[in-house]
Amino acid sequence: MTDTAFYLFGAIAIGASLLVIAQRNPVYSVLLLIASFGALSGLYVLLDAPFVAVIQIIVYAGAIMVLFLFVVMLLNAPQEDTEHDVRMHPFRGPGPMRFGAVLALGLAAELGWALTRTPGDSAPFGGTPVSSVSAIGRTLFTEYAFAFEVTSILILVAMVGAVVLARREEPR
Amino acid sequence: MVALDHYLVLSGILFSIGTAGVFMRRNLITILLSIEIMLNAVNLTFVAFGRALGSADGQIIVFFVMTVAAAEAAVGLAIIIALFRHHETLNPESFASLKW
Amino acid sequence: MTTLLVAQIVLTLFVFIALLHSAAAMVWVERRLAALLQQRLGPIRVGWQGLLQPFADVIKLMFKEELRPGAADPILFALAPIISATAAFSAFAVVPFGAETTFFGLLDEPMRLQVADVNVAVLVIFAIASMSVYGIVLAGWSSNSKYSLLGGLRSSAQMISYELSYGLALASVLLLGNSLSLTTLVDAQSGTWLGFIPRWFIFIQPLGFLIFMTAGVAETNRAPFDFPEAEQELVAGYHTEYSSMSFAMFFLAEYINMVTVSAVATDLFLGGWHGPFLPESLGWIWFLLKVGALLFFYVWMRWTLPRYRYDQLMAFGWKILLPLSVINLLVTAAGVLYFGA
Q1: Rounded Cα–Cα distance for residues A29 and C262 (Å)
Q2: A38 touching B, CB under 8 A?
Q3: N or C: which end of chain B has fewer CB within 10 A?
Q4: pLDDT at A138 over 80
């Protein structure tokens, strides 16, 4: 039962991600990425991490993607200019696209090779799951308290930076 | 049985898809979306290892990665808005004024 | 094992149908209450006291022509009401509405009246509230019309702004109840002080309750925060181009969101299904009464208060409600630390 769930969520995640990079319309790309995040959230639940799963939906799918969607809609983001962009197979595209496709394929091959070299863990998961939110909270606020505070400053800096960057210039 | 290997392979595939998107697409927003795919693949690896080793550290690092991704998406989109206002296009090849 | 499965399926279907009927009931309640508040009668002719009016409305909506503007994006246009309605229904899946019961001895062990007993239930509700923004923003975008786009963007900006205060008010209750599971939070409110004051969180967190209800009203796009769908301003906002059943789905989603916000507020602040005089197994009656009272306040607010202008609305959300909710959280945390509750 969990195996079928894993394969189903994995297929959705991979399929949606492939469609994200293959779509012309940026709005569709954003929506497909949300679907991919949903599938990833399901995978986190399978990994006994319900807190991360829900945080993924709240932060990624519910906030960051809304931000993307707003920008795409407000900019009326144009689809890619050149006509030959998406209808063409990546390997027959112009130079940079072909190079990029080869690089990506090389990366995938390399990762696959690296995984076959590890002393494969074909046994089911060992270790006890730490799924309670209170345990995560305790570790977060004791061991990682400094990183937590620095993250809050990081968000503040990002907020200020985003407002300043996107502001219209005052007419002189 | 689904083992750690399966999750790592899935994460590797997602990371490669994200990388392919960054290399191949010529729309700034889609490039940012591909970066988000890569970050998510990394998150999946962290959670999978956290589960396999039985520690909460995996989930906590994912918490921080998500925060950093949010900050980076916000600033990246602000930069895109600023660029779009000046150049009216989202094609990264048109931002070539620093090329030599 | 199988009796439990059957009971779960029956419970899920029951919740689904009850939500549909509650939306229908809200239609009637809203129209009659609006009329009585405005010193007129409202619909009283269709059935006794107008109780069949919602059914007449639904039949009318079903027979209207299903339009789609030519320039609209067909996939997104069809998807938006589906997302709204689905998110509205799903949010109720983790809300418990009664104590554990064995359904008059049919089950071996008692089962909670909750579709899904998740131990991060509060976060799930928050997550699904975040997802319901998409129905609105996609409706506004896919209609490819000025009114819809403006209404959709304004409405979604409003929703994500008020989500912050919503979440912080929730967090204050979590500090008191020490758990993310709604059933645990409700059980922490059983019993009484001094024998007659129930241990509801509203008495410890009055400001939190007010913030939660205000943010909830803004989340569901109801008056006085319904600028994005105000008739005088934007024709009908994001659902201008929708007709017949698609419009009905948005309508349905709005009412069910109201019911969900009221149900969550009842569970978190008003003690859920605990109440005097009735045994625990009939607690759902108290739950219905409390949710009904909150829904009455919803309708009362709509027909009494004037509408906020959009910039006033956003200023209120960011400059007043958010600092208040942060202060509420800090004071609650200090209180919990000091009193050790």
Answers
A1: 35
A2: no
A3: C
A4: yes
CB contact under 8 A, A54 and C127: yes
List Cα–Cα distances, A69 to A77, B26, B33, C4, in angstroms.
10, 18, 11, 43
Torsion of CA C215, C216, C218, C223, to 10 degrees: -120
Residue of C nearest to A76 (CA): C141
Helices (H), B3-27: 4-24
Minimum distance, in Å, between the CA of residue B92 and any CA atom of chain A? 10
* Chains C and B make contact, 3+ CB pairs within 8 Å: no
Cα dihedral value C315, C317, C320, C326, nearest 10: -140
Distance CA A31, CA C80 (A): 11
**pTM, 2 dp:** 0.88
pLDDT tens digits, C278-300: 777 777 888 899 999 999 998 99
Residues A56-80 have pLDDT tens digits of 999 999 999 999 999 988 887 666 5
Contact call for A73 and C149, based on CB within 8 A: yes
Distance between CA atoms of B61 and A139, rounded to whole angstroms? 11
Nearest to C119 by CA among A58, A47, A48: A48
ipTM: 0.90
Chain A positions in Cβ-Cβ contact with residue C177 (cut-off 8 Å):
none
Tokens encoding A157: 């800096």
Q: Is C101 helix (H, G, I), strand (E, B) or coil?
A: strand
- Is residue C107 within 8 A of residue C7, CB to CB? The reply is yes
How far is C39 from C208, CA to CA, in rounded Å? 34
Q: Could you count the other beta carbons within 10 Å of the beta carbon of residue C58?
A: 18
Close Cβ partners of A103 (under 8 Å, ≥ 6 residues apart): B19, B20, B23
Q: Among residues A133, B88, A130, which one has the least CA distance to residue C180?
A: A133
User: What's the CA gap between B60 and A144, in Å, rounded?
Assistant: 8
Inter-chain residue contact C153 with A55, CB threshold 8 Å: no
* Alpha helix ranges (H) inside C102-145: 121-142
Are the C-beta atoms of A136 and A51 separated by less than 8 Å? yes
